Amino acid sequence: MKTPWRKLYVLSTAGALSWLGSALTTFAVILRDKDSVGAGGVSVYLLAFGLPSIFMAPISGLVADKFSSRQVVIPALAVMGLSSASLAMHLPVWWTPIALLITASAGTLVGPAMQAVEVTFTAPEDLPRVTGLMQSMASFGTLFAPALGGILVSTSGYFWPFIIDAFSFWLLAMVFVGINLNRPAVKHEAGEKLSAMAGLRFVFSDRLIRALVVLVGVLIIALGSFNVGEVFLVKDELKASDLIYGIVGAMFAAGSIIGALLTAAIKLNKKFHAMAVIVGISILVLAILGFSLAPHWWVAIALAFVTGVGNSILNAYAISIIMTRAPQEMLGRVNAAIGAIIQTGSTLGIVFSGIAITAFTVRPVLFVSAILSAVIVLIFAPDVIRFGKAFADEKAAESAA
To answer: Are 130 and 8 in contact (CB under 8 A)?
Structure first.
């Protein structure tokens, strides 16, 4: 198999524009409503983004495998564009979480289908590089979103961020058709039915993937406080302007780009992939601890960059390990199952942190979350490293044979 790099570069560029639009919407909607809805309302918005990954997982994974990628991706992106555009129409505040929920629900169909396409048309040895490419381009798109969002909001209000987001989804749909990478529907033997829960069963039957998912899923519960608390820490505690808040988000994206480029450029031996995942997680934990103690917004800017680097390292190697082990006919369902597990942890973290930040303010919650996260890493990391080394040894034996 020869990896179609040119087509993947085109797709990743369109994806970067889509991520730019999505980050603009996230930035604008939280900034617009934070004072009227408070920490609890911000939690509801984040839940609207996150919950579909949980309740849609059996459906989205099954759809991604049962239908061709083009049949799934094009209608879903069309719906996402319409729901994002509705946020620019000055509708009542109760519509905002509904629109976010619609966008996120359609997005749960796009994610597994796109991931399955990338794995299907990528040579196995190129998978970490392709993952790094897609991640770096996505981060490149989000790099400009907070600063651009700050400029747009300051000069023209909240209309254009949502409109740009809508058109970015429609552009991605057109590019996906144009590059002609279409994973066909999975064909099973006559009488055999595709099981929606097969992906979840596979995840928990594989020792390495199970250890990875449990570690990251439980960790995200503790780290959910950062997703809710960032805007309150930067704006209220550190007294930063809207522009500085945007720059903090931009530096996270910049760190993500650097981390993704490093993972794409460095051909790391498979036996070190699991260790790289633990390194990425450890960077995140230390960064959250730093945020809780930050004395000035410039420290938050530096920590946002470090957080982005750690996040990229974690994503690139974790996704590569999981997708390499997943059966080709189950790619959509495995991807959706993992997304649901991770999002469950994120949802629990958002709920708990929204309540905790309201009761105790943001700094103590971030500090306690970082300490709990460090404990979780110490408990679960040895299993990930042990099973990761065993997996690398198995692959080396197969190659020798």
So the answer is: yes
Dihedral sign for Cα atoms in the order 265, 270, 274, 278:
negative
> How large is the greatest C-alpha to C-alpha distance in the chain, in angstroms?
65
Instruction: Supply the pLDDT for residue 75.
Output: 95
Instruction: Calculate Rg over the CA atoms of the chain.
Output: 20
Q: Which of 332, 353, 327, 334 shows the shortest CA–CA distance to 116?
A: 332
Interatomic CA distance for residues 140 and 162, integer angstroms: 19
- Which amino acid, one-letter code, is at 23? A
Residue showing tokens 């992939």: 273
CA distance 80 to 165: 9
Judge whether residue 393 has pLDDT over 70. Answer: no
* Rounded Cα gap, residues 319 and 268, in angstroms: 14
Q: For position 208, what pLDDT does the model report? A: 78
pLDDT score of 173: 95
| CB half-sphere exposure, 31, CA atoms < 13 A | 28
Predicted confidence at residue 102, as pLDDT, reads 94
Q: Identify the burial level of 60 via C-beta atoms within 10 angstroms of its C-beta, where 0-12 means exposed, 13-18 middle and 19 or more buried.
A: buried
At 187, list the tokens: 């064909």
| pTM (two decimals) | 0.67
CB 68, CB 185: distance < 8 Å: yes
Query: Is 14 within 8 Å of 203 (Cβ atoms)?
Result: no
Please choose, from the candidates 287, 314, 285, the residue with its C-alpha nearest in 3D space to the C-alpha of residue 212.
314
Dihedral (C-alpha) 184, 180, 106, 38: value to the nearest 10 degrees?
Answer: 140
Distance CA 321, CA 323 (A): 6
In the predicted model, what is the mean pLDDT of residues 236-252? 82
